[in-house]
Amino acid sequence: MGLCGGMAGLFMGLQDRVIVCGWPRAIYGMVLRFLFGPGAFAAASYLVGLRGVSLNVAIVQVRER
Fold first, then answer.
1. H or E element that contains 12
2. Which tens digits make up the pLDDT trace of 40-57?
3. Domain ranges of the chain
């Protein structure tokens, strides 16, 4: 697994452009990943009934006291 990850990083590093798909598609992908994804997770959690401590455990969120 480590060698495979290293080779993938080397392949990505040798490319001419970092963002091959272009800026509009990259922004669209980031919006989907960082805004729509958590929103869908929150909506599904609310529908299922996860709230409070159960929701924190589902997100794997640890609060320090």
1. helix 2-13
2. 888 888 888 877 777 766
3. 20-65
